[in-house]
Write a structure and sequence with these properties.
The structure is a single chain. With 82 residues, this protein is an alpha+beta fold. The chain has one domain (2-81). It has one helix and four strands; from the N terminus they run ββββα. It has one helix at residues 59-81; strands spanning 2-8, 11-19, 25-33, 42-47. Strands 1-2-3-4 form a four-stranded antiparallel sheet, with helices on one face. Strand 2 and strand 3 form a beta hairpin. The radius of gyration is 13 Å and the shape is elongated. The chain starts with a strand and ends with a helix.
């Protein structure tokens, strides 16, 4: 498994590329709010089979896709909260 995490403001995006038994890598993502006014850390979004299980040929491609999905979901959900 390959992992990548990045802080974006008050949020952390966790991206993963997991080896598929059928070859290639599948992508997964989770977004967590780390900080906030009087609120504990909270999961904002997660999807452990993004791209409907599509298999990427390289782990970096799966990580990039997972990060992009996580970043997009974070922006949309934060905008809806504001």
């Amino acid at each position: 498994m390959h992992l990548f995490e990045s802080d974006v403001g008050d949020y952390r995006i966790y991206a993963a590329a997991t080896i598929s038994p059928r070859g290639g890598y599948t992508a997964a993502v989770a977004v967590t709010r780390l900080r906030g006014i009087d609120n504990p850390p909270q999961r904002l979004y997660s999807n452990y089979s993004i791209a409907d299980g599509f298999r990427f040929s390289e782990p970096t491609a799966a990580l990039r896709y997972a990060y992009e999905v996580g970043h997009r979901e974070m922006r949309q959900r934060v905008a809806a909260i504001a």
